[in-house]
Amino acid sequence: MEKLEVKFLGTGNAVPTERRNHTGILVSFLNENILIDCGEGIQRQLRIARINPGKITRILITHWHGDHILGLPGLFQTLAMSGYNKTMKIYGPPGTGHYLALIEQIIKELRISVQVNEVFDSIIDDKYFFIQSKPMFHGTPTNAYSIVIKDRIHLEKSKIKKLKIPNSPLLGELQGGKDIFFNGKKIKFSSVSYLEKGKKITIILDTVMNPDAVRLAEKSDLLIAESTFSVRDAEKAQEYFHLTSGDAATIAKKAKVFKLILTHISERYEHKINIIEKEAKKIFKNVRIAKDFDIFRI
Question: Which of 37, 67, 233, 292 is the catalytic position?
Answer without folding.
Answer: 67
